[in-house]
Design brief:
Elements: E1 3-7, H1 16-29, E2 34-38, H2 44-48, H3 60-64, E3 75-77, E4 82-85, H4 94-97, H5 107-112, E5 121-125, H6 132-139, E6 145-150, H7 153-156, H8 159-172, E7 179-187, H9 192-204, E8 209-215, H10 218-222, H11 230-233, H12 238-253, H13 259-264
Parallel strand pairs: 1-5, 1-6, 2-4, 2-5, 6-7, 7-8
Antiparallel strand pairs: 3-4
Helix pairs in contact: 1-12
Amino acid sequence: MTRVYTLVNQKGGVGKTTSAINLGAYLGVYGQRVLLVDLDPQANATSCLGIDKRSVRTGMYEVLIGAAPASPHILHNPRYKLSLLPSSPALAGAEVELIEVEHRETRLRDALAPVMDRYDYILIDCPPSLNILTVNGLVSALNGVLVPVQCEYLALEGLGQLTQTIQRVQKSLYRDLKLRGVILTMYDSRTRLSSDVVAEVRKYFPGQVFDSLIPRSVRLAEAPSYGQPISTYAPESHAAQAYDALAREVLVQDGIPTPAFETTR
């Protein structure tokens, strides 16, 4: 069974791409076949995995407009235990080109359908905005939406708007759309603010916030410049341990207590 999760937050800088990459990497560590879909014209997920976005000749843009199938353009990195459908700045043009296209909201879901059975998890990294690309990501979230929330006051703003967007998509395009969980990022145990934000988010989303807290981390910030997930760049760091714990939490909630999981607790 393939599980498809979309990571979305219209606010930038909340750790969305970082979470998509590192959650995916640790799911791979635990034996899952993982595809990361870079649905952002900024192509940060692509760059963070060591791929020059300017060198991507065929990727998410061509797939979304129907000029190419997804399968031949998926890149696999056995070291990181991740596959990637890369993006490039050309994807920004899709927003305009899809305006007049029939069934434009389901283009991504239709494009991924032929490769679904190859993966256990598909993680879709959306742009930090609420546009047609994000709508495609939401409609493709067959198993729910993951919302990274930075543990700072301003990060709380916009959650209501995001919730309303999810509800509108649920009502008009995909009635089974649901919130899978909230990932709390950039947590600083030294500050009361972080603890207050954690409490507030858990109050706002009762029972829907992951226990694992992703800390602020220099090592986590460094990893993209080396084109690596934290699982290979600094596996002993606190951030690595946090994403490891998040991946295990997701697996257990999904009913996948694998032998690898049991032996690493």
